[in-house]
Amino acid sequence: xxxxxxxxxxxxxxxxxxxxxxxxxxxxxxxxxxxxxxxxxxxxxxxxxxxxxxxxxxxxxxxxxxxxxxxxxxxxxxxxxxxxxxxxxxxxxxxxxxxxxxxxxxxxxxxxxxxxxxxxxxxxxxxxxxxxxxxxxxxxxxxxxxxxxxxxxxxxxxxxxxxxxxxxxxxxxxxxxxxxxxxxxxxxxxxxxxxxxxxxxxxxxxxxxxxxxxxxxxxxxxxxxxxxxxxxxxxxxxxxxxxxxxxxxxxxxxxxxxxxxxxxxxxxxxxxxxxxxxxxxxxxxxxxxxxxxxxxxxxxxxxx
Length: 304
Ligand SMILES: [Zn+2]
Known about the structure:
By secondary structure, the protein is an alpha/beta fold. It has one domain (2-278): 3-Layer(aba) Sandwich (Rossmann fold). Helix content is 25%, strand content 23%. Bound molecules: zinc ion (ZN). Zinc ion binds at residues 39, 116-117, 198, 249. The site of zinc ion has 5 residues, from loops.
């Protein structure tokens, strides 16, 4: 009798262990939403898919919307299979049912990555502006919320009047770390050089940044704001895990796409995606990460 109990206990423990192990090994089911953007979404959503899937950690589906101006009422998204949603969308409003389901997904603690111009979308949807914390363009101004930037060792909220969202000419620039113990950034260099990209500045919104991960100095000499701009951060939004990365302006083709071919961008996307989906980052710091002086590219969207 005693022996039998032990055996049952042993099988129970083994079953639990195998279930957990299988869950950990299973790719993270991911949905990229795209189909409308003032950017080259036909390049960006494939680049993101390749970055995520080449890591072996993610399995990607697409939700591609109707074209701009077309009927959106049938673009109803089922979020239930997914642990991660990546927004690469800047266009017409989703239908009410998709909006409702997206908020429900987040309310239950869903993981989201806000990528580059996705934070331009939906200026008149208050919940979406909370989900992004900061956004730009689409007539954003002082009514959208304060400017938020790093000054005197803290994030400043500046309520002065003016446009929300701009950038100077594309150039290489250095990212500066803040919350260095956050799982997304832990072990990565505190300063590293990003390949040629836009540097978003003067973004506005509710400003509910949770953990600032990287900022960069937007130099007036390149047409910038003269401020240290928050570019990579998490968002304080209930139980949801939201990773917002403003880097990664898509190029003309997958081959000519330096901002997304940057190893730093790809590693941050991978680590931010894993964190948003699971709350942890299991990926080691790669040997090819850029330094403060030298950029690094993964032209084929995978680790060499
Ligand atoms: Zn852009």
